[in-house]
Specification:
Blueprint (H helix, E strand, L loop, with lengths): L1 H14 L1 H26 L4 H28 L2 H21 L6 H16 L1 H13 L1 H29 L4 H42 L5 H11 L6 H17 L1 H27 L7 H37 L6 H4 L23
Helix pairs in contact: 2-3, 2-7, 2-8, 2-12, 3-7, 4-5, 4-10, 8-9, 8-10, 8-11, 8-12, 9-10, 10-11
InterPro entries: AI-2E-like (IPR002549)
Membrane topology: Multi-pass membrane protein
Family: Belongs to the autoinducer-2 exporter (AI-2E) (TC 2.A.86) family.
Length: 353
């Protein structure tokens, strides 16, 4: 019954994604901007003015970033694709001539499939440019702006309206759920943007120092890829390696590989745990499954939204269904092979009189 209801809800949300996606984006942005509004109000700025200052600043910043990204990538997109394709060809020649026997036909078919996909208008439009030209996206952007303003201005009143019919323990859990959602979403957006910016700067500076062409659009793409955890920045980093292979040779390409691998390891092991903290306390397998599901349901936008929403879902599950056992009991410590629970304490020896 629960599974059926879940399927029905998901199907309905997909059908209404023109409304649902702007609503989710506005909620995430509002969570990230909420501390700014609170800061201004604590400094004596009237509530309405604090909302307008934050809202207009967010629109200007986001609009400028999006415009800069479009112009930085659009003008050099064709050259970027040609360089990546050339890198794939050189990589194919190296593999065929290398010590590991790989079938020429199978390799050519794989390379051709990748080249056809990356060279197609659908890929370029769908991945970078078409999203800005579609009428639905313009409508969605307007909805995001309108919903974001009302979330910033009347978010507390809207939430109080939904809570007015609840009492007792349910009300307490809902209040905790609201606070936790703001914390997780806001922390995720701010932390991910900081980590993605650091990755883009480090790899971009490396490309400039090594005189790899197209350093600016590659750095921009790496920043965008940072919002798709685990795979985003790594995939764009692979494109940077292919460009370096074509333009600068294998030695420079290996240096770029080393930098990309190092920054990804630093990201996964140090930066994300330190910057994001509990905002992204998900196992990498859960993140990958969430990314796959989001991409299937709603493409690139779904992949970007999937991870923070999954993090919120897991946080809410912990609030509404707290663990009944200590984590160590199920983590394998002191547990028998194949058992769920640890060994029971040995019975006391019978006493003799």
């Amino acid at each position: 019954m629960l599974l059926t209801a879940t399927v029905v809800v998901v199907y309905g949300l997909i059908q209404l994604k023109l409304v649902v996606i702007p609503l989710l984006i506005a909620l995430i942005l509002a969570a990230a901007l909420h501390p700014v509004v609170g800061f201004l109000r604590r400094r004596g700025v009237p509530g309405a003015l604090a909302t307008w200052i934050t809202f207009l600043a967010a629109i200007v910043v986001l609009g400028g970033v999006v415009t800069g990204i479009v112009f930085a990538v659009r003008s050099e997109w064709d050259e970027l694709v040609l360089s990546a394709v050339g890198g794939l060809e050189r990589l194919r020649q190296f593999i065929v001539a290398g010590p590991i026997p790989i079938g020429q036909k199978a390799l050519d078919e794989a390379i051709t499939a990748v080249v056809d996909f990356t060279s197609s208008p659908q890929f370029g439009a769908g991945a970078l440019l078409g999203i800005f030209a579609a009428t639905q996206v313009i409508t969605g952007a307007v909805l995001v702006a309108v919903i974001l303003y009302f979330f910033l201005q009347d978010g507390a009143k809207i939430w109080a309206f939904f809570l007015c019919r609840f009492h007792g323990e349910n009300l307490e859990k809902l209040l905790t759920s609201g606070t936790t959602t703001l914390h997780v979403l806001g922390g995720y957006v701010r932390g991910t943007a900081l980590v993605a910016l650091l990755e883009a700067v480090v790899i971009g500076v490396t490309l400039v120092v090594l005189r790899v062409p197209l350093a600016l659009p590659l750095a921009v793409l790496i920043f965008l890829g940072g919002f798709i955890p685990i795979v985003g920045a790594a995939l764009i980093g692979a494109v940077a390696v292919l460009v370096a292979l074509v333009a600068n040779g294998p030695v420079v390409a290996l240096v770029v590989v080393a930098v990309v691998v190092a920054i990804n390891q630093l990201d996964g092991r140090v930066l994300q745990p330190m910057v994001l903290g509990r905002a992204l306390s998900l196992h990498p397998l859960v993140v990958l499954l969430a990314l796959a599901g989001g991409a299937i349901l709603s493409g690139v936008v779904g992949a970007v939204l999937a991870v923070p929403l999954t993090a919120v879902g897991w946080a809410l599950i912990q609030i509404w269904f707290p663990a009944s056992r200590a984590p160590d009991a199920l983590s394998g410590k002191n547990a028998r092979p194949g058992a769920v629970l640890p060994d029971p304490p040995s019975p006391e020896a019978p006493t003799t009189t």
